[in-house]
Write a structure and sequence with these properties.
By secondary structure, the chain is α+β, with helices and mostly antiparallel strands. It contains seven helices and eleven strands. Strands 1-8-6-3 form a four-stranded antiparallel sheet, with no helix packed on it. Strands 5-4-2-7 form a four-stranded antiparallel sheet, covered by helices on one side. A three-stranded antiparallel sheet has the order 9-11-10, with no helix packed on it. Helix 3 runs parallel beside helix 4. The longest helix is centred in the C-terminal third of the chain and has 18 residues. It starts with a strand and ends in a 10-residue tail after the last strand.
């Protein structure tokens, strides 16, 4: 018997949703209450479970399509069984493993995998995404389910060109200025809109913090004379602030990102401006 998979009743003030990711493809076995598809709205990502045990017969809406409340997006054949793989594939001999490979220890899972929610862990496994390679936007840089949905939709990175001769030491302002462009989800787009509205309509706040600068002062006292002889300028405290800011942007690239239309652009470089009198 054919059972329809429908979009659930959407939250109040949400008129439609977008197909974010299908976790099953036509012909796959499904279990009752197993997540079939993720729907993304401006406010939340919804999981649509299978209504019965059976086989996903067809997908009526593809990733990126807009759907409305109670719209049919797929068909499940209740009680059906997926076709078994060919017998020849089941009995195919496994390739011989070199002795060195047998002795190699098993790979250790990335530490960030343990921090994922159950839904995020399942999404990473089904799409073969290494959470360690995904830039987290959650608290303390945690990888969220939305980050994994973005990573699943992003195209694979092009292979890097062959390395040429060793480059000369980088001069000030030189070096690669690479960028990574990732399309924002509907939720992230709406968050960006609200943030800009807040910035443009609310007075900005400046925060002050006290920092113990003894280590920097001691280093400046020790190397100040040598630095001035080498570079012709005095070693000021601003140099330490700029260095600290650049290192912080390397460790937290999400802070060094910008919004361009419907995309988030992650910059692999830092431009720091300093106001002078």
């Amino acid at each position: 018997m054919s059972i329809e998979v429908k979009v659930p009743v959407l939250p109040e003030s949400v008129s439609d949703a977008t197909i974010a990711a299908w976790h099953k493809k036509p012909g796959d076995s499904v279990r009752r209450d197993e997540n079939l598809v993720d729907l993304e709205t401006d406010k939340v990502v919804l999981e649509v479970p299978s209504p019965v045990d059976g086989v996903l017969a067809s997908v009526l809406k593809n990733v990126g399509d807009s759907v409305g409340s109670q719209e049919v997006i797929g068909i499940v054949e209740a009680g059906a069984v997926a076709d078994a793989p060919a017998a020849s594939a089941a009995v195919a001999p496994a390739p011989a493993t070199p002795p060195a490979a047998k002795a190699a220890p098993p790979a250790t899972p990335a530490a960030s995998t343990a921090e994922l929610s159950p839904a995020g862990r399942r999404l990473a496994e089904e799409n073969r995404i290494d959470p360690a390679t995904v830039t987290g936007t959650g608290r303390r840089g945690q990888v969220t389910k939305e980050d994994l949905v973005n990573a699943a939709k992003a195209p694979a990175a092009a292979p890097a060109p062959a390395a040429a001769a060793a480059p000369a030491p980088a001069a000030l302002g030189s070096g690669p200025r690479t960028e990574q462009r990732v399309a924002m989800t509907r939720m992230r787009t709406r968050i960006a809109e609200r943030m800009m509205q807040s910035k443009n309509s609310i007075a900005m706040l400046t925060s002050f913090n006290e920092v113990n600068m003894k280590a920097a002062m001691d280093l400046r006292k020790t190397l100040g004379e040598q630095f001035e002889k080498t570079h012709g300028v005095r070693l000021g405290l601003m140099s330490f602030f700029v260095k600290a800011a650049a290192e912080a942007l390397k460790r937290h690239p999400v802070v060094n990102a910008s919004v361009d239309g419907a995309d988030i652009v992650y910059h692999a470089y830092a431009d720091i401006s300093i106001a002078v009198s």
